[in-house]
Amino acid sequence: xxxxxxxxxxxxxxxxxxxxxxxxxxxxxxxxxxxxxxxxxxxxxxxxxxxxxxxxxxxxxxxx
Length: 64
Ligand code: SF4
Prior knowledge:
Largest sheet: 2 strands, antiparallel
Strand order of the largest sheet: 1-4
Bound molecules: iron/sulfur cluster
Order of helices and strands: EHEEHE
Oligomer: single chain
Number of domains: 1
Helix content: 10-25%
């Protein structure tokens, strides 16, 4: 899995961080998403899928 986020779409809602804090964080300056693990291990794939599903702006994408 490889994660690709669109920071232009991110509205800083933080849902991805709540779902997968090991994979996503928010920039301290602008609150926008920061990817900590662009290629997360398989144990984290389900939470990444949940994060993508719950992102209100559709900013979290990934390829399997
Ligand atoms: S859930 Fe979506 S909009 Fe919210 S911080 Fe994460 S990427 Fe940005």
